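Input (structure):
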């Protein structure tokens, strides 16, 4: 992947169980890792359709491109200072993509869900 297109920076928080509270529930924690990235929405691939009584609405899901060297898994939390993509987002799907002419990993594409 041409790293010149990774014009944004994000923080990836991979939470892991670190302890339990007094009720026996796991407490999760972790340190955010900064990574070059690119936020975008795909206009060619339709997102979800939502029906709200007055009609159907197309919902574009934000996506994130990361370099092949990044470590990201489903349910990781993504934040950034990029206008319109500050987050926080939860990674809902991770898709490692190979280079077109070889089998080497080119970049990682993630589908994101907004966390309210």
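Output (sequence):
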């Amino acid at each position: 992947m041409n790293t010149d297109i990774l014009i944004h920076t994000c923080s990836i928080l991979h939470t892991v169980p670190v302890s339990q509270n007094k009720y026996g529930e796991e407490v999760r924690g972790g340190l955010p890792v900064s990574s070059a990235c690119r936020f975008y929405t795909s206009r060619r691939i339709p997102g979800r359709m939502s029906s709200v009584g007055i009609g159907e609405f197309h919902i574009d899901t934000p996506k994130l491109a990361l370099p092949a060297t990044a470590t990201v898994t489903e349910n990781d939390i993504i934040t950034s200072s990029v206008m319109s993509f500050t987050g926080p987002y939860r990674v809902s799907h991770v898709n490692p993509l190979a280079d077109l002419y070889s089998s080497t990993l080119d970049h990682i594409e993630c589908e994101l869900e907004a966390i309210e």
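Notes: The mean pLDDT is 83. The chain has one domain: 8-43+59-114.
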